[in-house]
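Posting here for the record, re: zinc ion.
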Amino acid sequence: MTRRVAIGGFHTECSSYNPLMQSREDFRRTEGADLIARTGFDFAAAGIEAVPLFHEASVPGGPVPRATYDAQCAELLAALAAAAPLDGVHLVMHGAYFVEGVDDPEGDFIAAVRRLVGPECLIAGSFDLHGQITAQIAETLDIFAAFRTAPHVDVTETHARAAAMLARALEGGPRPQVVRVPVPVLVSGEMSSTFVAPCDRLYAALPQHDTTPGVWDSNLMVGYVWADSPRATAAAVVTCTDAAAGQSAARAIAQSYFDARHALVYDMEALPLAEALASLKGAAVLADSGDNPTAGGVGDRADVLQAVLADGRPALFAGIADPAAFEALEAGAQRVEIGGTLGGGGPRLSLTPDTCRFAEDCAVLTLGAVTLVISHRRRPFHWFADFDALGLDLDAFPLLVVKSGYLSADLRTLPRRQLMALTDGAVSQALTRLENRHRPRPSFPFQPEAGFDPAF
Ligand SMILES: [Zn+2]
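Prediction output follows.
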């Protein structure tokens, strides 16, 4: 008998320090065959009829308004109800929504999915390792898998792991469950890159736990540091059919992360902005980390641009989001003001470009030795294809400035010095200076003396 599995979900990351609320228009929807392909799993070959609902993802940013969250949930639940009867559901999630008045947005949604499909239907979830996994999420899901790389290069493989476990469970045998051990540690992605110590070692150990009988899939969730939320915590999360074996694996993973907390350091050279610029000699990439839109920053701040213009060296600055400046330039303005237009703060600059051209919904300006990209919408410039599309040759610029934390897989390959500027913004790396009213206490590094007992 052919089994039926519905696929759907939501994906974003919300800084509670970002004043620019997300809107429904910020989300891009994936449906149909494209959504099935996103899972990376051949459901048909497993004898499963995949029923794609929809998936919505946005560039990370500020909080999601309650009405937007409610509408997304209602629409996805209605699509799910229409897809009945179902044997399974695969939820493709991130796990770092922030919705005012809703402590556990993804958890409440998944609980609503459970109420709709009933206790027999299997529910699998695949998540970003920067998601917040609550007890409600672990208790409601039957199957869980999360990225094992950050920067993320195993996105499709992760969704496929969850789908493969779902197919396996549908064939019968003991029903899987998800166990979770929270870890009182909360750091930035830049301090927990899986490509450098200590997280390279911690993540390399995860598949070894999966060889234990009764353990299916082991995960370490770093969590998301830029949301002041009662669920903000790291966690070890394990899918298992043997609860004792799963809990033992989760405790070991949790303890390994807690024990490594003092070794969690930036994965690249990091300096305050003035020191970073003063230290530059040869070619370099400079990451404006506090205003990184892919971590939830606004992406509109001009403080680094101001410093680069004053510095005077040839540079490519990509980019600053400023709808008003873009539209003014498009209308023929010779002088524009930029900086903090979307609420991100920082200085306002008045610019009179030497030249201005348009491509890819961006304006490319020259200002003396500096080339500046102003984007119409919030977006990153992290991939070689982004620069190719704008006709920009990176080799022509000794200094490349991007709004980024850790560098993308593309930019990491550039044979030049790679430096993170510790700048202001909604995703500042100055973690202990962040307002902290709602995170669980004690939690490292906010309360450096935090202890840990993995028993639960
Ligand atoms: Zn992530």
